[in-house]
Amino acid sequence: MFCSKCGTQLNEGSVFCSRCGAKVGLIVEQLAADVSPKSRLATTLLAFPWLVVGLFGAHRFYTGKIGTAVIMLVMGVLAAICYFGGLFAPLVVGGDESALGPVVVGGVLYFAVWVWALIDFIIAVTGNFKDSQGKIIKKW
């Protein structure tokens, strides 16, 4: 174990750094206070973009980031409605099959929310995802 202030190697069970005098226990307590009680495994699995829940912001709801979770949910639902509605509308209504505007819009929304979920997944796997209170989710 090393001192976080000066980098000196500490003996096991040291309470103070022998070089700079920093209290080792206080540093550990501060680090523990900055770690979220949320599960990193749950956050990672919920953010996985190949699972449907990652595209609807389930990981953001879990970590308490409700505002961005709702935005992600709305984008995911709109993507599904536009894409599948645009694909099946000509079959149901009997309209023009060349009107692929909703399919393109749905595809773009789907791609955007998929990339967002992938980035969140990578951040969660590396242990740098934060909850709504700004605490890092480190505990598996």
Tag the structure with descriptive keywords:
single chain; 140 residues; mainly alpha; 2 domains; 6 helices; 57% helix; 0% strand; rod-shaped
Shape: rod-shaped
Total helical segments:
6
Q: How many β-strand stretches?
A: 0
List segments where confidence is low: pLDDT < 50 over at least 5 consecutive residues: none
Distance between the termini: 22 Å
How much beta, percentage-wise? under 5%
What number of domains? Answer: 2
Main beta sheet, described?
A: none
Q: Calculate Rg over CA atoms.
A: 23 Å
Question: Which sequence of SSEs, written as H and E, runs from N to C?
Answer: HHHHHH
Supply the helix-strand structural class: mainly alpha
Share of helix, binned:
55-70%
What does this structure look like?
This protein is mostly helical and 140 residues long. The protein folds into 2 domains: 1-33, no CATH class; 38-125, no CATH class. It is built from 6 helices and no strands. It has helices at 24-33, 40-47, 52-55, 58-62, 66-93, 101-125. Helix 5 (66-93) runs antiparallel to helix 6. The longest helix is centred in the middle third of the chain and has 28 residues, at 66-93. It is rod-shaped, with a radius of gyration of 23 Å. The mean pLDDT is 82.
